[in-house]
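Sugar ABC transporter permease
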Amino acid sequence: MATHEATGESVADSVGWRTKLRYVLNGDFVRSLPYWGIPFVIMGIAVYGGIGYNIAISLTDTAGIGPVDWSSLDLEMYSQALSEPSVHRAAVNTFVLLVAFTAICLVLGLFLAVLLDRQFRFKEQIQMIYLLPMSLSFVVTAKLWVWMYDAEFGVINVVLGLFGIDPINFLGNPSFSLAAIIFALIWQFSGYTMIVYLAGLRSIPGSQFEAAQIDGASTVRIYLRVIIPQLKAASVSAAVVLMVFALKTFTFLYALTGGYTPPKGTDILATLMMREAFNNVQWAYGAAIATMLLIMALGVISPYLYYQHKQGSL
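Structure:
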């Protein structure tokens, strides 16, 4: 009798196990696995595997082409980087570029969006003109501004000459070079922030503006006290995207000079990393600088992710 009961429980367990397995295999997760699983593995190896390998290399003393000595892992490269004046200058330039570019783009984009939010003729055409530079690549933008900043034949110096101002070597003078780079990037990306803010403004009901006008508030006061505070989410999203673009300025600087050495006064962590890794073949030192740049990027992204988490979007 006891044997029959045990056999019955075993059969029931077997049926239950098979039912659960069939339920799992027929689930959406497993059935969709061929579509997202392969890209997920490839991305994981290419991106996160690369990041992990870079961090591992930065803990060695690897220099030049050859086998990596994994027997001695330490933080010597980070200590060396933190004591180098060239790294300090590159970090400061990266930070100044990041903050100035992002802040001015946000303010200018908001100003343009508020202007275009009003009703007037040709505003669609003006909107297109401001957005057009966004469609250009960093390479095209860099070549354009090399010509614009040319000390002898550049358009800007020609205009300055009309007012009796001597030509300025914008890219050759360290006092002007970083500001010139930031200005060129603002020219390219302020249209993007304008579109983000314009979309935010048009999502706000017009009844709020009308109610504030009935209460006697001026147009400036309505925007400052009622409209702009509601653009917080648009500001956060635009700021994160702009900061990521700022950290990718390496492409712009590389196209500007055709090498890893940017104009004097514009060296950033990305160009310094590439110069150390590929010109000087200091793999471990370059990897340490790359890791520092990664930490800076995570510092930019993390507040945004936290904000999205607080809003319930993650």
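Residues 308 and 314 are 6 Å apart (CA to CA).
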